[in-house]
Amino acid sequence: MSSHNDHQRGLLITAIGGLTLTVDIPLIRLADGEAWTILLLRTGTTFVATLVIWAIWRSLSAKAPQLIPGWSGLIVAALYGLGSIAFITGVYNTSTANLVFILAFTTMFAALLSWLFLKERPQPLTVAALALMIAGVVMIVGDSVGTGHLFGDLMALCSAFMIAAAITISRASGKDMGFTALIGVVLPLAIAALMVSKVGFHVNAPWWIVFNGAVIMPISFFCLANGPKYISGPEVAMFYLLETVLAPVWVWMIFAETPSRNSLIGGTILIVTLIGHSLWQLHEGRKRRATLAVSHPA
């Protein structure tokens, strides 16, 4: 019964994180500011909120996780920071649909890096899914050639790679990196502060981005980081897909931004492939647990 309750709790926590993350890009767009100013406000408020949450946690429990657990934590924080810079750059240089569709490639980047560096050989179905997703990304990026969106698409791809690399190192280290992604905002915060000092502070509705950094980012990343404690990786991945599906819908409703036909086709390939692959992984995981239960009865 306890295991069932833990699974229900995990689904609820991860669903909250995934749904919360879907409003990140719309809030960035609503703030209506220059990219470096937005990055400064978003990372600055996230950093302050993270320190406050961690300080409260530490005062209540001696088991509060480290902010940066060793050298591996420092590398992971740097990767998340670089990913954040690439993400904001992508927001301002490509469409929302292109951005979130390409970011969905993070899962397959992680599988590829695990294969190369952790020697976790993927199943043939995973390789097939990777090939399909590459085709989807090529379709999206190819559609941006000559439209001025290519640079933004490449930044989205860089962001996906950085996050995947951070996930791979986190898994290899076996350390608790719960707060590390949030502390990683120090790097983009420092760079943004330097750039804003040169180009000036420009934002028309700062409250949107302050709310995003102080509330949305800590809630979403904290919940999504804690999901794997209770539910499987494929189940967590399903909730990450909520941003891919819903963020373009919110932006379409608020800003009437319509994705191109090729972007929709490429995005559909990515989403269907990821959902199908995640469901297959979930089925395989349950089958393995059932086999273990039969082999080692209580």
Overall geometric form: globular
The major beta sheet can be summarized as: none
| SS-derived structural category | mainly alpha
Number of domains: 1
Q: For the residues shown, what is the average pLDDT? A: 83
How far is the N terminus from the C terminus?
15 Å
If you compute it from the alpha carbons, what radius of gyration comes out, rounded to the nearest whole angstrom?
Answer: 19 Å
Assembly form of the protein: single chain
Order of helices and strands: HHHHHHHHHHHHH
Residues in helices, as a percent range = over 70%
Strand content: under 5%
Got a strand count?
A: 0
Figure out the total of helices.
13
Q: What ranges have pLDDT less than 50 throughout 5 or more consecutive residues?
A: none
Would you give an account of this structure?
This protein has one domain. It is built from 13 helices and no strands.
